[in-house]
Amino acid sequence: MAEYRDIKYVAREFSDYRQELIEFAKNYFPDSYNDFSPTSPGIMFIEMAAYVGDVLSFYQDTQLQETFYSMLRTQETFIT
């Protein structure tokens, strides 16, 4: 087995998603939403969406990593 390497295929994290969602809201809804304080309900929903994106990125990275024989973490995933 090759040595374990943590390859990030998506390379996306919570803070990246959060910042991009805030920029999206600023660009596409400049008049209808402009309260970007950390305690606003809108930021709560943005952070919830960023969390879901972060979790999905983690699972995508994990599943893609298991597709390469040299990167297998568990032998059970290998089909002969």
Description:
With 80 residues, this protein is mostly helical. The protein has helices at 14-28, 41-65. The longest helix has 25 residues, at 41-65. It is elongated and about 55 Å long.
Mean pLDDT score = 81
Strand percent estimate: under 5%
Find the count of extended strands (DSSP E, 2+ residues).
0
What would you call the structural class? Answer: mainly alpha
In helices, the fraction of residues equals 40-55%
Major sheet, described briefly?
A: none
Rg, Cα atoms, Å: 18 Å
Number of helices: 2
Any low-confidence stretches, pLDDT <50, length ≥5?
Answer: none
Order of helices and strands: HH
How many angstroms separate the termini?
A: 15 Å
Based on CA inertia axes, which overall geometry fits? elongated
